Amino acid sequence: EVRFSDKTKLIAQVIGKDPDTDLALLKVTADRPLPSAQFGDSSTVKVGQWVLAVGNPFGLDRTVTLGVVSGIGRENMNLSRYENFIQTDASINPGNSGGPLFNLRGEVIGINTAIINFAQGIGFAIPSNMTKHVIEQLLAKGKVIRGWLGVGIQPLTTELAKKFGVSDGEGVLVNEVFENDPAAVAGIRPGDVIIRINGTIVDSPNKLSRLIGTLTPGAQARIDVIRDLKHVTLTILLTERRDAAAV
């Protein structure tokens, strides 16, 4: 049920949902034009910029709170499978989830999604660019279809990075390659360190999963690895991610 500011209500149809990002797409049919907000580009969001959070905290309709962006690219929060949260100190409470995070131009740069219990001023929003990608697929297919590489990965400690000849904080270590999957077919081996995907630096397992997840099955990915202290570039044809898959 969708309730509007003028107290009218409409029943929504669920077009699709994506548990991996905790997003769903709803559709309502109205007998009048409905106002809408526009998405902004979350890749331009900077720490320290002002933002407004709008929601329904504790049943208090259309509450607006003001704050700043406290951090970007937050991951490993164990809130969803693909994490790249915007952190904000704009007050977010139970009931704010699903509400927009606006920049001062009135563009939606995030969807408020979570808080840390017992903390003050630590809230998280799903970036608008991730949201737009999910919405496009839900609208077209009713579900999100993600690419699958077929490797097991782990982060690199300082000692491992030194051993494998990569900069500290760069790359992820391949500890398993699944037989007959895209990585194995393309020649990736256990012990390879993946440092870039399509030119984008990989610095954590979460980021690798997220980058592969933005690619569709059938897409080609250019993957740069360090193998035996040498740089190797491989082109991999991705397949569709299986439900239990990690990357």
* Structural class based on helices, strands and sheet pairing: mainly beta
Overall pLDDT score: 90
Number of strands: 18
Strand content: 35-45%
Q: Which spans of ≥5 residues are poorly predicted at pLDDT below 50?
A: none
Q: What general outline do the C-alpha atoms trace?
A: globular
Query: Strand order within the widest sheet?
Result: 5-6-7-10-9-8
Q: How many helical stretches?
A: 4
Characterize the main sheet.
6 strands, antiparallel, barrel
First and last CA, distance: 36 Å
Helix and strand run: EEEEEEEEEEHEEHEHEEHEEE
Rg calc: 20 Å
Helix content: 10-25%
Question: What's the quick description here?
Answer:
Helices cover 14% and strands 37% of the residues. The protein is mostly beta strands and 247 residues long.
Summary keywords:
247 residues, mainly beta, 4 helices, 14% helix
Protein described:
This protein is mainly β and 247 residues long. Helices cover 14% and strands 37% of the residues. The chain has a six-stranded antiparallel barrel. The protein is globular. The model has no long low-confidence stretch (mean pLDDT 90).
What layout of secondary structure does this protein have?
Layout: E1 2-3, E2 9-10, E3 13-18, E4 23-27, E5 50-55, E6 63-74, E7 85-88, E8 100-102, E9 108-115, E10 123-127, H1 128-141, E11 147-148, E12 151-155, H2 158-164, E13 172-177, H3 182-186, E14 193-197, E15 200-201, H4 205-213, E16 220-227, E17 230-237, E18 239-240
